[in-house]
Specification:
disordered N terminus; single chain; alpha/beta; 451 residues; Aspartate Aminotransferase, domain 2; carbon-sulfur lyase activity; Cys/Met-Metab_PyrdxlP-dep_enz; Methionine gamma-lyase; PyrdxlP-dep_Trfase_small; PyrdxlP-dep_Trfase
Length: 451
């Protein structure tokens, strides 16, 4: 089986010349030097700052966009060596942009640094990242154990598509019940334990280290979706084998790009790019180089944005609770997972940029959101998250609508659960006054469920 070379994605390589072996000495020196550098596991921002910086073709501080779909070789023999896996992107040899593209590869280096993993590959969407990695790790007849509380699209993938199309079954569990998780994992059959670091939409927090220990003891790999909590939690540093993202959310920050990422061991990314059996290579969820360039320019200020998202979410949640509203936010001390998140979180990044208000009924939820958008201009009724404006949706009838009533109840999703992705536009007090304005307009105090 031919396997294309991936190796270490953070290697600093010079542009190749006419010969296949040109600059090999420089390559080996760079590889040795980087191998001795201490990793910055303590802080994602520090890790990003220590990662390789790609300069533009003419020395620009920003990398150039490599828009080519295909790439030339200087010698005929080179192409065979690339397809045999002898020469790869670690040495600046590229075949075709569905395989590896220099601009997309640079974004992958940033994502790997962000999550503290050996490698990363960026995809066309978050769902393509999730489906590709699971199909790579689980074959027909295989078994997955997953959290009951998942994004609706992922739940549908596991519940409906995989059994029908791939003969892959899933057992859903309550992650807080560690005995239930342990019992559900069948040694030799269960290939993956899958969950979200902070669950969509319930905001429950996964005990990543303990769940990883349980899974690894039974020979299963751990895949964690960290879309809700970049910077806040680093699952790869806590024992997870693979971290997936919908980059469309906080990492993008602009609500204008659809993208995803798979972060994990180089051997896994390499296998996913295998010419014969790699899911990324053969299913083709390719990221456009121009999209990768835009995203790479946003990652350097992700830490600043996350701190403000989290600061405002905590401030609003605290004030909402004092008003007697039924608010769910893991930064509040009475949240059942507050102590766990405090222990797992990277310091100084807060407790997440999302909060939930449980209005108990969809009617109440819709009335609140309608006034918050169309009367006080506090935020927008829209799915997704991580935007600079506050986005609101009633999860049960939107992003979790793929779950049936029983599944929603088991996941803890109330019919009136309003998920808020707290933005940072405007001043904090300006936005809070808009929220208060809505409460005054509603007048009927019985509309608000009390704690």
């Amino acid at each position: 089986m031919a396997e294309t070379g991936f190796h270490n994605v953070v290697l600093s390589g010079k542009k190749r010349g006419g010969s296949d072996d040109a600059d090999r000495n420089d390559y080996m020196v760079a590889k040795k030097a980087l191998a001795t550098m201490p990793p910055s596991w303590e802080d994602p921002v520090a890790a990003l700052a220590n990662s390789r910086h790609e300069f533009g073709e003419h020395g620009g501080v920003n990398m150039s966009i490599e828009a080519s779909a295909t790439f030339t070789v200087m010698e005929p023999e080179t192409m065979r060596r690339m397809f045999d896996g002898e020469l790869g992107p670690d040495r600046d040899f590229y075949i075709y942009s569905r395989h590896f593209n220099p601009t997309v590869l640079n974004l992958g280096r940033q994502m790997a640094a962000l999550e503290g993993t050996e490698a990363a590959y960026c995809t066309a969407s978050g769902m393509s990242a999730v489906s590709s990695v699971l199909l790579q790790l689980v074959s027909s007849g295989g078994h997955v154990v997953a959290s009951r509380s998942l994004y609706g699209g992922t739940h549908a993938l596991l519940t409906h598509f995989f059994p029908r199309a791939c003969n892959i079954t899933t057992t859903f569990v309550d992650l807080r019940d560690l005995d239930m998780v342990r019992d559900a994992i069948v040694e030799g059959r269960t290939k993956v334990l899958y969950f979200e670091a902070v669950a969509n939409p319930t905001l429950s927090v996964a005990n990543v280290p303990e769940l990883c220990r349980i899974a690894h003891d039974k020979g299963a790999m751990v895949v964690v979706d960290n879309t809700f909590s970049p910077m806040v939690i680093s699952p790869g540093r806590l024992g997870a084998d693979v971290v997936v993202h919908s980059i469309s959310k906080f990492i993008s920050g602009g609500a204008d790009i659809i993208a995803g990422a798979v972060c994990g061991p180089a051997s896994l990314v390499n296998s996913m790019m295998d010419l014969h059996q790699g899911t990324l290579m053969l299913l083709g969820p390719t990221m456009n180089a121009k999209v990768a360039f835009e995203l790479s320019e946003r990652i350097p200020h992700l830490g600043l944005r996350m701190k403000e998202h989290c600061h405002r979410a905590l401030t609003y949640a605290t004030r909402m609770k004092k008003m007697g509203l039924k608010v769910i936010y893991p930064g509040l001390e009475d949240h059942p997972d507050h102590a766990l998140l405090k222990a797992l979180a990277n310091k100084e990044y807060g407790y997440g940029g999302l909060l939930c208000l449980d209005m108990e009924t969809e009617e109440r939820a819709n009335r609140l959101m309608n006034l918050l958008q169309n009367y006080s201009q506090f935020g927008f009724m829209a799915v997704s998250l991580g935007y600079h404006e506050t986005l609101m949706s009633c999860s049960g009838s939107s992003t979790s609508s793929e779950l049936n009533a029983e599944e929603k109840a088991l996941a803890g999703i109330s019919p009136g659960l309003v998920r808020m992705s707290v933005g940072y536009s405007g001043t904090l007090e300006q936005r809070w006054s808009q929220f208060e304005k809505t409460l005054t307009r509603m007048q009927d105090s019985s509309l608000f469920p009390k704690n």
